Amino acid sequence: MKSLFPALSFKLVIALLITSTLSACGFHLRSAYLVPEEISEISVTSFDPYSKLTRDVESQLRMNDVRITAPSENIVNLHLISENISTRTLSLYQNSSAAEKEILYTAKARMVIPEIGEKTFSTSVNRNYLDNPQTALAKSTEKELLQDEMRAQAASQIIRQMARLRAELQETKPAVSDDTARN
Fold first, then answer.
1. Is the CB of residue 77 less than 8 Å from the CB of residue 46?
2. How far is CA 59 from CA 52, 55, 104, 114, in A?
3. In whole angstroms, what is the distance from residue 143 CA to residue 139 CA?
4. How far apart, in whole angstroms, are the C-alpha atoms of residue 123 and residue 154?
5. Which residues are in coiled coils (predicted)?
6. Any idea what the CATH number is for the domain that residue 64 is in?
7. Would you say residue 17 lies in a domain?
């Protein structure tokens, strides 16, 4: 029985050490992207309302409990301005055909907040892939899958950029003085 306590206390000390280290460094488990509470409903307009990017952004908003409504003067509007996909060659085969390529996906969005103003966001995602001319069909399918993955990541980044609006929204809230609160 005496040998059980030192092992138990050693494990307890290690657990407390790990817990205090993690809490001291500011580590937090990631949950929602912290879309400001003031943005409980939003209208989404887009250069193409049926595009994959628009669907991905709307899905991300719903996951963050933001209700999507029709555009109105007193509703926050997220306007997806554009998306662009470009490629460049990174390396060549001996016969001068492209061996490795980079795909760059760029999306732009504008957030219009009534009585506050507007902010424009830009996000870009890049991926590299090998381009083997002998497997052209498989590579075109891989390229499409990469582009879809990049659109989904860009949608997540747009939502994260909305989280930066929290400070600006809190600055513009009318301050309630102590005299007003007592009355």
1. no
2. 10, 6, 23, 23
3. 6
4. 6
5. none
6. 3.30.160.150
7. no
The encoded tokens of residue 97 equal 């055909």
Please state, in angstroms and as integers, the Cα–Cα distance from residue 132 to each residue in 23, 26, 117, 119, 128, following that order. Answer: 48, 45, 49, 42, 13
The answer to whether residue 14 sits within a structural domain is: no
CB 103 within 8 A of CB 140: no
The letter for the amino acid at 104 is L
Structural domain contains residue 149: yes
Write out the residue range of the structural domain in which residue 76 sits.
Answer: 30-167
Task: Give the torsion through C-alpha atoms of 45, 50, 53, 54, to 10 deg.
Answer: 30
**Cα distance between residue 135 and residue 132, in whole Å:** 6
SS3 call for 164: coil
**Residue 37 amino acid letter:** E
Question: CA 161 to CA 57: how far, in whole Å?
Answer: 12
Secondary structure of 80-147 in the HEC alphabet?
Answer: EEEEEEEEEEEEECCCCCEEEEEEEEEEEEEEEECCCEEEEEEEEEEEEEECCHHHHHHHHHHHHHHH
In tens, the pLDDT along 55-112 reads 999 999 998 888 999 998 889 999 999 999 999 988 888 887 888 888 999 999 999 8
On whether residue 23 sits in a domain, the answer given is no
The per-residue pLDDT of the chain, averaged, comes to 80
